[in-house]
Each structure stands twice: as C-alpha cells, then as structure tokens.
Amino acid sequence: MLFLIILLIIICVALGLFVLIQNPKGGGLATGGSGSNMFGVQRTGDVLEKGTWVLLTLVVVISLAITAIGKTGSTGATGGGDSKIQQQLDKTPTPSPIGGGIKPATTPAPATTPTPEAPKK
To answer: pLDDT at residue 17 above 70?
Structure first.
C-alpha cells in the first residue's frame, strides 16, 4: 500500500506539471514554428491534453485501489494486525447506556454527636 501511495504522489506531481505547462490559447511548449515541425502548437496541445487525461485516470484508479486495500484491513508493512489506534479503542471501556450506569452522588447524613448532659446536683 505504501508503494501505491508513493506512486499516487508522483502521478499527482506529474499531473500538476502537465496542467501548468499547458497554455490556454494552445501555445503550450511550442514557441512558434511552422506547420512542418513535428511538435507544432496543435500537436503539443494534443499530447499534453492526452497526457493529462491519462494521468487523471491513473489518479482515480490508484485512489480507488488504496481505498479498497484500506477497507480490507491489510496493513502491508506492519505484517498484519490492528493499528495502534484500533488497539487503543479496543482497550477503552464502553460506556453504559444512559440512565443505567451513572448514579447520582449521595451525601451521607450528618453525624449527630450526643450532647453531654448537665451534671445532676
């Protein structure tokens, strides 16, 4: 899964470069030239546009693959088992339902001390 995440980051950077290189007026990488050039203005625009669509498709496919792998619980590098967060959640006690677990604090009745009687004459 780590490999897919690294691949996704690389593809996203490439996609960003492809988008930034394109010129909205069709200029792009081609800085002039005649129609006999192999990479003229129109040809460069086509290559960059197709590359953008291919990279965008790869981003979607790899994102779905990472999501599918993540849902199955496969951790890859750690060799299986639950994550530390899941282990911590399993350790915490579950609260009891409302009204059943928490009892109001009761205050003990004040202790009465016997009053000394007056000595008899």
So the answer is: yes
- Of how many residues is the chain composed? 121
Residue 14, pLDDT > 90, answer yes
**Cα→Cα distances 119→19, 26, 112, 116, Å:** 105, 116, 21, 9
**Using the 8-state DSSP alphabet, how is residue 86 labeled?**
H
How much is the pTM? 0.48
- Taking Cα atoms as reference points, which of 59, 61, 91, 85 lies closest to residue 73? 85
Pairwise CA distance, residues 70 & 90, whole Å: 19
Mean pLDDT of 27-44: 56
Please report where in the chains the tokens 């492809």 appear, as a residue.
18
**Pair 40, 34: CB distance under 8 Å:** yes
Instruction: Report yes or no: 86 and 60 within 8 Å, Cβ to Cβ.
Output: no
Give the residue from 14, 11, 53, 47 showing the smallest Cα distance to 29.
Answer: 47
CB of 1 within 8 A of CB of 69?
yes
